[in-house]
UniProtKB/TrEMBL annotation:
Species of provenance: Thermocatellispora tengchongensis
Signal peptide: 1-27
Keywords in alphabetical order: Signal
Highest taxon in the source lineage: Bacteria
Protein name: Uncharacterized protein
Record's keyword annotation contains Signal: yes
Amino acid sequence: MIKKYVLGGTAAVAGGALLWGAAPVAAATAGPAATGAVSAQAAPSTAAKKLMTAWTRGDRAAAAKVATPAAVTEMFSYAFRAPDKFLGCDGTACRFTHTGVRVPGGLNGVVMIVPGTKVTKVYRSRHITKPATVARHLYAAWTRNDRYRGLEVATTGAVKTVFRVRFDPRGVPYTFQGCSAEPKGYSCAYSYEGGGMFVHVRGSKTRGFYAHSVSYIAD
């Protein structure tokens, strides 16, 4: 039996509680004329569900049949209990979320990228024990224009703020200045010519830290 963190405690993965029967809205409401389109979209969800099932059973061999080695490694690094609801696939992105527990960040579970018949990338909510790691992770996601990566450690609002402007690799350089305590958490700063960006981190070492919001100042 696999045990996963749930907000500082542990809980056994209960496969019977998973709501994976939920289908994407488009598939559930499509009429006979859309049958071909629905069938064509079935492959991503099939691989995603098989990988999730393999993880809950601790079966890496089964996981390797439906996912790349990197995706398997990411999935088996998930620190929380199994997400209990499958939200379906939006294009190649298939999402599993938690409805009964809270986990850090806006991803709220796992997103699998399935461009064909195999899962090639896994995004996951993360249990991070250092505020600075949260800030660096969010900044790295921004430099790669990868919103899912940002949501692994930050709220939807924080990600929306950071990604409001696209990162320019030819623009002014950002320098990480570290983190300092502030009311309710920590403020982690990046300085750049003309101003600074502050990642406001909340949470705890036990429950996991996450980026709650982001603010800026101008010199």
